[in-house]
Write a structure and sequence with these properties.
215 residues, mainly alpha, 11 helices
């Protein structure tokens, strides 16, 4: 990359960061939770669903099963009934119970901080681990979901052919480590409410001149 191109890229990144800070100065995770295992389960449940739908079922789930011990002993059919509104309820019910069993039997009832231990839990992949580590333990991480991927490609921060792991690595190089968690949340919110998959709100977007979708 030539010096001019590097300068143009830096200016673009600065513009993106300034705009995200203006729109979402203090971004927050939109999943509701009160402790570590509730957050982890909520993130797992959010796969192929929305935070709003997940937030509609987790109060019912955690009110009926008030701790990990109760979840360990939960009947799968009861879990499936509660989780039906979010989709994939058979698989997700199994994940919920197996996560509870693993946390109790292998981790003393505490969600582990080590990535390899987290990703060994049922239903927990790299994206889920990144979201959890950033949100609960404040460990710098960038999780690439559909919103982050879409926005990153539209704003030409990554290439169209990049997979989620490649996108994660490029974004980690683009933004300073101390703001990875903040940038992740901002990109999620921007993709969820502004740069939507269908009918994005382009007209009032300050980044439309550098956006691949708009052009």
């Amino acid at each position: 990359m030539t010096g001019l191109k590097m300068m143009m890229q830096m200016n673009k990144v600065e513009r993106i960061e300034e705009y995200l800070d203006k729109l979402y100065p203090e971004p927050k995770c939109e999943l509701n939770y009160t402790n570590d295992y509730q957050l982890l389960i909520a993130i797992v449940l959010s796969a192929q669903s929305t935070d709003r739908r997940v937030n509609s079922v987790t109060p019912i789930l955690f009110d009926k099963y008030k701790d990990l011990g109760a979840l360990c002993n939960a009947d799968l059919s009861d879990l499936e009934l509660i989780l039906r509104p979010i989709g994939s309820h058979h698989k997700k019910a199994l994940y919920v119970k197996e996560i509870a069993l693993n946390l109790v039997n292998k981790h003393g009832g505490v969600v582990p901080v080590k990535r390899e231990d987290l990703e060994a839990l049922p239903g927990v992949g790299r994206k889920t681990a990144n979201v959890f580590l950033s949100e609960f333990y404040n460990i710098p991480a960038i999780a690439v979901d559909t919103h982050v991927e879409r926005v990153s490609k539209r704003l030409r921060l990554v290439k169209d052919e990049d997979n989620v792991r490649r996108i994660e690595e490029k974004l980690k190089k683009t933004f300073k480590r101390e703001v990875w968690g903040k940038r992740h949340l901002q990109l999620v919110l921007f993709g969820r409410y502004q740069c939507k998959a269908v009918k994005p709100l382009c007209d009032n977007c300050a980044l439309k001149d550098i956006c691949k979708y708009k052009k």
